[in-house]
UniProtKB/TrEMBL annotation:
Source organism (scientific name): Amycolatopsis australiensis
Entry similarity comment: Belongs to the CPA3 antiporters (TC 2.A.63) subunit B family.
Annotated ranges, domain Na+/H+ antiporter MnhB subunit-related protein: 106-227
Keyword match Cell membrane: yes
Record keywords: Cell membrane, Membrane, Transmembrane, Transmembrane helix
Lipid bilayer topology: Multi-pass membrane protein
Residue spans crossing the bilayer: 7-26, 72-90, 102-122, 134-151, 172-193, 205-230
Superkingdom assignment: Bacteria
GO cellular component terms, A-Z: plasma membrane
Descriptive protein name: Multisubunit sodium/proton antiporter, MrpB subunit
Compartment(s): Cell membrane
InterPro entries: CPA3_antiporter_subunitB, MnhB
Length: 244
């Protein structure tokens, strides 16, 4: 796809989003109202399902179907970005990873922080139903943490350790398993994405029913999607302009 076609297509998307945002803002309820029905219903539901993190309870239990839509939007955005940013054969021939000078302290910081960031991302995903975090947040931490190798000036190492093909499979599998979990709830509980697993003890890692399961699936999908997405952004950034 040519640069001009990408620009026009991007402008059309921005215009559509702008129309939606303006429409939403014009129809928002007044600020400071006394009616908080969602709050009054969400808190008892989270306690009943042994989910200390109220946000995760809302995302993966009360409105799990909406979260499925958001997950699908992320997947569609990744597919769209891949279509737009896929390097052409001519661009691939000019792809030259830059080897600029990187301060030793930056390299050391990147290599030291990388495993810590990955462990933090896993913790955020695994404990998303207990403490602040969850699949979306942890997935972003994992995907960006992986690219500390690039910040450290080791793009070849990033290419070797970045399993693009596996990430593409993982993103699709996580999205499909989310739907399978929903169908399980439909068969066992009579409603799509019904929370049918044992809720366990309040504050325990194995608790909250399907909430941690869906959170982990979202974490896998977001991590894989962002890794693939960032790979294409880096490819475009490393393609020198014509004549250089």
């Amino acid at each position: 796809m040519t640069r001009r076609a990408r620009t026009w297509l991007g402008a059309a998307g921005v215009l559509g989003v702008a129309v939606l945002l303006v429409t939403a803002f014009l129809r928002m309820p007044e600020f400071g109202g006394a009616l908080h029905g969602y709050r009054d219903l969400a808190l008892p539901a989270a306690i009943a399902r042994a989910t200390p993190n109220l946000v995760s309870s809302v995302n993966f239990d009360l409105r799990a179907l909406d979260t499925l839509g958001e997950e699908t939007i992320v997947a569609a955005a990744v597919v769209g970005a891949l279509s737009l940013l896929q390097p052409s054969p001519a661009e691939r021939k000019r792809l030259r990873p830059q080897h600029g000078h990187v301060l030793p302290v930056v390299k050391l910081a990147g290599y030291v922080v990388l495993p810590v960031t990955l462990l933090l991302g896993i913790d955020v995903v695994a404990h998303g139903h207990l403490t602040p975090g969850g699949g979306f947040q942890g997935g972003v931490v994992l995907a960006t943490g992986w690219h500390l190798l690039y910040v450290s000036g080791s793009y070849p190492a990033l290419v070797r350790l970045r399993p693009i093909d596996w990430c593409e499979y993982a993103e699709a599998a996580a999205t499909g398993l989310y739907v399978v979990t929903g169908l399980t709830g439909l068969l066992a509980g009579g409603a799509f994405l019904a929370n049918v697993l044992p809720t366990g003890r309040f504050g325990s890692l194995l608790s909250a029913g399907t909430v941690p399961v869906l959170s982990v699936l979202i974490g896998i999908e977001v991590t894989a999607g962002f890794v693939v997405l960032l790979s294409r952004f880096l490819d475009q950034a490393l393609i020198p302009a014509e004549g250089t």
